[in-house]
Amino acid sequence: MQEHVSDRLVGTLVDNRYAVRSKLARGGMSTVYLATDLRLERDVALKVLHPNLATDETFLDRLGREAKAAAKLSHPHVVGVLDQGNDGLTAYLVMEYIKGHTLRDVIRSKGALPPRLALALIDPVVEGLGEAHAAGLIHRDVKPENVLIADDGRIKIGDFGLARAVTTSTSTGTLIGTIGYLSPELVLGKPADARSDIYSVGIMLYEMLTGRQPYDGEVPIQVAYKHVNETVGPPSALVPGLAAEMDELVQWCTANDPENRPVDGHALLQELRHIRTNLTNAELDLRPPAAVPAGQQSPTEVIARTSNPTAALSSLPRPRAQPPQPPRQPHSPHAPHALYPPDEPDRSYTQHLPYAEDDRNQPAAALSKRAQRKQDREDEKARSRAAATPVRSLREGNPRRRGILWVVVLIIIALLATGAGWFFGMGPGASATIPSVANKSVSQAQQLLSEAGFQSRTTDVFDDDIPSGLVVGSDPAAGQEIRKFQPVALFVSKGPQLYELPTLTGGTLEEAKVALNQAEMALGNVTEQFDEAAAAGTVLAQDPAAGTPARHGTPVNLTVSKGPQPIPVPSVVGQEEDAAVAAIEAAGLTADVAPEEVFDRKVPEGSVVSQSPANGTLTRGGTVTLTISKGPRMVEVPSFIGKQATEARKGLEALGFEVRVNNILGGFFGTVRDQDPVGEEVPEGSVVTITVV
User: Fold this and answer.
1) Cα gap 101→108, rounded to integer Å
2) Which of 191, 255, 279, 536 could cross-link 283 (Cys pair, CB 3.0–4.6 Å)?
3) Active-site option among 56, 141, 247, 463
4) What's the pTM?
């Protein structure tokens, strides 16, 4: 259901297009509203980023690139990204609106799920991830809250790209993600790939089968430590009777080493469907024990990360086994069931302390005996005290000495109170506000902290925006009030963390885009040029070159082949053979003279009668076939003298001659009196003159 809460955006029009109708949910990075796209007249989910992100130009630029990449992905199991933009200080994403609930709601209401239902729910999620992985997209925040189940049964996974955009826009001293589902390589600060999403899917499947996450801790860093240093146990440890194939599937997905996991969503989908078809009905319909608790909400959390995450995790003491705790209850008794759930929880916890047994649980006879023995002991102690107490004191107390003693006690108390007042008022225990030290040198920052009464220590971190040697920030952050004796950590920039650019040349443009996305680099300008050796679409060059150290998000310019350059075919019909061959070769083509010459009454002997192709274009080295003329055919002219002119004309034209008539006296009789030439061989097409009387 929707959360109807007063909000400044409800009832407004965003970017003159999206009419905001109600608020669906609020999280740590954004607030989601139900809105109507007035242009297309349809409901959409409008994700409005919080002001601290909406004013970050670097983040907005990265978010735009991520939104464009996600918008290209069209799949029935992926929530579509429809639009992205800014309206003043309102930065927003427009997504497909799915009316329904989330996988978190299913786990919360049903607890542990039978394998058949768990596999049916996870199948479309893995299929959608597989399609995204094939397109070079990594989700980075797979969790039940991001699996949306529509009222009509459709299952989709949403929020592609937002976690990556937020992570890359913040300082590298911060890691954003859902700690319960975060892969070990992300905890250690290593780049994410498709196998990082597979790890999160494995954790999610474990939770669906058992009703709980495999790791728990009082603080996020304890959970992170377990992801890196422990191995996810088989879910059958909590669900007896669960098929061994389900244990193997979960542990394959959650292997600590990414090399031991499925390579991507498609690989996992094949195995998942194979298992689903090979399990028996009894194994698929196994009912988990009722004692398995329902899953808790998994918020997107922000945890500090040092420049050496491995050392930081190693220094953490291993968590000790804790006694069973009562279930954690939501802070609000009216928590909304929203389709787009918040990624930042508001929780309170109730601690139930153990109590001792009292005597009310004991039998009545035992209670009477115990009470009698207790009374006897008290009576004996009273008699002993009476016997040891003299009737009259042998030495009266000195009143003056008692007065001096009280004065000393009061002076000591006053001194202690004065010392405590100084300690907490002006000394190391006094409160003070952390000054702003960002973008300052280490010496300047330490001097500011020293003047405020603080002791500081420095930690080096990577940062994309702050120059090397300057302070990125402090912990506690500027503006917070703490006691002066508490240490303050200064984070000193080492400059941007650099990664070697991958080799893109030799592959296709699409392969280069996937490689850039996996390396978290950006695609720069794409220039096309003709190349005689490389097929169209092949990457010829990249700038910067492969192996060049560069920060995440660096644009890489590519030069892409358009294939061999087309050459227009020149027309050489009528030219002499040598001249025609020279013209074709000068154009970069190859001339091929046909072995058979042909007669032609119009083209002289030795000249080109025809060519193939006659026009159009060829690539360099293409062949043009030339046919050479033998000149006109020689034909003997028969005599038509004494015959009628019409017969003579018809016979001569049939032999290919052109007939010219010379009438004498008007050609009254129509008889051929003379002809020229006659009885000799002449070229086909020659003119024959007949004289008619």
Assistant:
1) 11
2) 279
3) 141
4) 0.47
